[in-house]
Amino acid sequence: MPDNNELIKQQARYISHEIRNQLSISDVYCEVLKKHLDKINIKDDAITKAINCIQKSTKLIGNSLLDLKSLTNLNPQVVNLNKIIEESIELSKVYIFEKNIDIISKLDSNAQVYIDDNKLEACLLNIIKNAIEAIDSKGTIIIETKNGKDNVKIIITNNGKAIPKKTQAEIFNDGHTTKPTGSGIGLYLCKNNLNAQNADLKLVESNNKKTIFEIILPILHV
């Protein structure tokens, strides 16, 4: 008879399978909507962005569910870093709601990076979402890239509430959260997924003026 750990893994696989089935239905209906709008000649940027956001989110959720099957579910490839960052910014805007927040990108890196694009995008979304939540009503989030000799840094800065100094050393721990409804696994997963690909995520500083995170990615030399 399977032990408790095996039963949990088995149940996780079943749940993952069923959720992925429902996600695929959502994706199919997004395609149906696109074709229907084209057929009746309706062009609306807001609707198009919403459909694209749903499809991208569906893909990210689907890839995350694959992690229930394998702890080493990584698919690294050479990626367009600027494209991933811009997509992450666009998807993140759904969290802004009625806040007055500017997200500014300063992307000048043309480095080739070998990384799992879905894992990187999920990490960026997590950090940008946290930054949006740290800003009460009005603020700025700046995302920039800087090339080094062997790596490229993605620097994410916001001027929202500071992370309490006494908990800054714990933010990447499994289960640590300062949110009433938080799970405490977001930053933990981000850092672990990056570390598994010779990349890293760091909190540079957090005070009353700004909070800065850095994602450090190895440059692919060809």
What are its keywords?
single chain; 222 residues; alpha+beta; Heat Shock Protein 90; 2 domains; five-stranded mixed sheet; 7 strands; 44% helix; 21% strand; globular
Q: Briefly, what CATH class of the largest domain?
A: Alpha Beta
Number of strands: 7
Main pleated-sheet profile: 5 strands, mixed
**Uncertain regions: pLDDT < 50 for 5+ in a row?**
none
Structural description of this entry:
The protein has helices at 4-39, 45-66, 81-92, 117-134, 186-195; strands at residues 77-79, 100-106, 113-115, 138-147, 151-158, 200-206, 211-218. It has 222 residues and is of the alpha+beta class. Strand 4 and strand 5 form a beta hairpin. The mean pLDDT is 86.
In short:
With 222 residues, the chain is an alpha+beta fold. The chain contains five helices and seven strands; from the N terminus they run ααβαββαββαββ.
Topology:
Layout: H1 4-39, H2 45-66, E1 77-79, H3 81-92, E2 100-106, E3 113-115, H4 117-134, E4 138-147, E5 151-158, H5 186-195, E6 200-206, E7 211-218
Helix pairs in contact: 1-2, 2-4, 3-4, 4-5
